[in-house]
UniProtKB/TrEMBL annotation:
<feature type="transmembrane region" description="Helical">
    <location>
        <begin position="128"/>
        <end position="154"/>
    </location>
</feature>
<feature type="transmembrane region" description="Helical">
    <location>
        <begin position="15"/>
        <end position="37"/>
    </location>
</feature>
<dbReference type="GO" id="GO:0008028">
    <property type="term" value="F:monocarboxylic acid transmembrane transporter activity"/>
</dbReference>
<dbReference type="InterPro" id="IPR036259">
    <property type="entry name" value="MFS_trans_sf"/>
</dbReference>
<keyword id="KW-1133">Transmembrane helix</keyword>
<dbReference type="InterPro" id="IPR050327">
    <property type="entry name" value="Proton-linked_MCT"/>
</dbReference>
<feature type="transmembrane region" description="Helical">
    <location>
        <begin position="49"/>
        <end position="67"/>
    </location>
</feature>
<keyword id="KW-0812">Transmembrane</keyword>
<protein>
    <submittedName>
        <fullName>Uncharacterized protein</fullName>
    </submittedName>
</protein>
<keyword id="KW-0472">Membrane</keyword>
């Protein structure tokens, strides 16, 4: 989410284009993480490699939390209390308690009109709900594919730990289309890993295409909100798909 906010802050006019490019590079970066982890394991051993790898990831998390968007230059205007009252149309009553109650009601009304109704109007955009439904189905299928990859590796004669590497190499959202063409005939782990890696690049292009469609579905004022909702929904579906895939292993 920090990445989406930074993209919006620096590329407001080309938000959809830059977020599509960022999504593609995100999947490429994720695909390299298992290779980095394997290199650290070979160099420092499994326990030390996991500690070093975790330290690197937590450092990235801390850097994201510490990120501060660039503040735009604005001209501050000092106003008096009477000017504020005229601007917000707060009624001036002689009774302080009634004045306080009306002020709170006015603030609640402004909050509802500014945030809730604006958020609700996003779902009234044409085809936005269809977009979310298609995204949910697509990511759920990709996550559930992880269960099949483990059983596929075991059926090919790999140990469970080696079969688990297929999940790491494909991540949790990668398209299995290329694997389907070759997995039935190929028994080499490295070729299978290459197929899953290539399918991951395809998924990156696919996700970039999804974000690229948002400007044609929602208006420019709701575009950042739509991107945030899409990203949050993607994470929820990924967790749900992994949960259901794990439950089906006991059936």
């Amino acid at each position: 989410m920090t990445g989406y906010l930074s993209v919006q802050e620096h590329f407001e006019e080309k938000f959809s284009l830059m977020i599509s490019v960022a999504c593609l590079f995100e999947f490429v970066g994720i695909a390299t993480l298992p290779l980095v982890l394997q290199y650290l394991i070979d160099l420092f051993g499994q326990q030390n490699a996991i500690i070093i790898f975790g330290a690197i990831l937590w450092n990235l998390v801390a850097a994201g939390v510490a990120y501060k968007p660039v503040q735009r230059e604005t001209k501050g205007i000092r106003v008096t209390t009477e000017s504020v009252d005229r601007r917000t149309h707060y009624p001036k009553l002689n009774n302080p308690e009634e004045n306080n109650i009306n002020t709170q009601e006015k603030r609640v009304t402004i909050f509802v009109e500014k945030y809730f109704l604006s958020f609700l109007s996003l779902f009234l955009q044409e085809n936005f709900m269809v977009f979310l439904i298609i995204e949910c189905i697509m990511y759920f299928i990709f996550v559930s594919w992880a269960l099949f990859l483990v059983s596929l590796g075991i059926s090919k004669g790999f140990v469970p730990g080696t079969s688990g590497l297929l999940i790491d190499m494909r991540r949790h959202r990668w398209i299995p289309c290329l694997c389907l063409f070759g997995c039935a005939l190929i028994r080499d782990l490295y070729i299978l890993a290459a197929l899953t890696f290539l399918s991951g690049l395809c998924q990156g292009v696919n996700s970039s295409g999804l974000f690229g469609l948002l400007p044609s579905i929602v208006c420019k004022y709701h575009l950042p909100q739509a991107a945030a909702i899409s990203a949050v929904l993607e994470g929820i579906v990924v967790q749900l798909g992994g949960l259901i895939s794990g439950m089906t292993s006991f059936l």
